[in-house]
Inverse folding.
């Protein structure tokens, strides 16, 4: 009888193992099916992806740019070498780049031609340069050679004829500035960084005044910021497991988008490395480290709708396609492809 029982257990064990293998392969296949395409990134890795003017554009740390038409991702990309990492990709195929921190060059991506040069005020140097989510405007953070000059925010409007500064300045003492953004209407600028805690400020480009600034006590530092498409919300994140949704006009934290603790530790804490809003404002997506996960939330409910293991080593940037149907993710690491995901398969 014992021998018969042993013979019965062997087929059952075999069936169980077979079933487990089939399930595992199904899950792996399902995960892989979410990636619909891979694109060759600039060789030195990607520091930023941009989705403006119907194009997906990747910027590398050494200033090499590759740009694809979202509707023709299989075609060869346009390429341009700018030799600077301070780059803003604009609507209409124009690219703003800062050289030596002292001036902005306006280049045409389609013909690799530098069309004009925009100067800052004497003694100013550019710390940060970013385009608005759809590439309509660009914002800059400028330092001054005068010790008490503080940090001035500035913007470049459509037409790209000049750089206009915000009159009221931010005191730079004790501040580590990390990121800047401008709304697609060009009305507001937001910047984030760290003082004693996470710090964020908003400025009105029309009045030239700071609207508000505050420290987020729950965060030790904010490193990324962006606007919703209508400019009504500011999304900011950094160290920690939360993306903050703030009312752009008041700075009130109206929503917290949370994720699990992931693989963070005391020596390598959880942090958000990039954040973006979908073109219709319905979703936000954020990349986090360690673990290289991408999280998607419904902005109306505040609930996560998906999280994916991107497969990147260090996720640097994430953007939506213009119609919101696809998501692109990139990596700081060299020779790592840009991945295109079908958003419908992530939910």
């Amino acid at each position: 009888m014992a021998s018969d029982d042993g013979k019965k257990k062997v087929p059952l064990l075999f069936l169980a193992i077979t079933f487990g293998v089939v399930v595992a392969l199904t899950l792996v296949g399902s995960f892989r099916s979410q990636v619909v395409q891979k694109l060759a990134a600039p060789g030195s890795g990607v520091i930023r992806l941009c989705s403006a003017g119907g194009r997906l554009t990747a910027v590398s740390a050494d200033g090499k740019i590759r740009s694809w038409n979202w509707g023709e991702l299989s075609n060869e990309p346009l390429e341009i070498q700018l030799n600077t990492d301070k780059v803003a990709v604009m609507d209409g195929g124009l690219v703003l780049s800062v050289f030596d921190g002292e001036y902005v060059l306006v280049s045409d991506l389609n013909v690799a031609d530098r069309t004009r040069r925009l100067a800052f005020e004497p003694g100013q140097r550019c710390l940060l340069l970013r385009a608005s989510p759809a590439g309509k405007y660009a914002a800059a953070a400028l330092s001054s050679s005068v010790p008490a000059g503080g940090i001035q925010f500035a913007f470049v409007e459509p037409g790209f004829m000049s750089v206009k500064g915000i009159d009221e300045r931010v005191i730079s003492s004790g501040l580590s500035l990390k990121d800047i953004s401008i709304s697609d209407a060009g009305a507001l600028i937001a910047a984030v960084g760290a003082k004693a805690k996470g710090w964020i400020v908003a400025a009105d480009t029309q009045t030239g005044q700071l609207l508000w600034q505050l420290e987020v006590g729950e965060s030790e530092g904010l490193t990324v910021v962006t606007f919703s498409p209508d400019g009504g919300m500011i999304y900011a994140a950094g160290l920690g497991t939360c993306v903050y949704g703030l009312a752009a006009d008041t700075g009130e934290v109206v929503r917290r988008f949370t994720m699990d603790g992931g693989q963070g530790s005391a020596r390598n804490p959880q942090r958000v490395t990039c954040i973006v809003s979908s073109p219709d404002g319905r979703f936000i997506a954020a990349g986090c480290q360690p673990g290289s996960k991408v999280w998607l939330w419904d902005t109306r409910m505040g609930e996560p709708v998906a999280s994916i293991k991107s497969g990147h080593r260090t996720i640097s940037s994430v953007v939506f396609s213009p119609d919101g149907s696809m998501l692109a993710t990139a990596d700081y690491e060299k020779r790592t492809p840009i991945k295109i995901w079908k958003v419908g398969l992530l939910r």
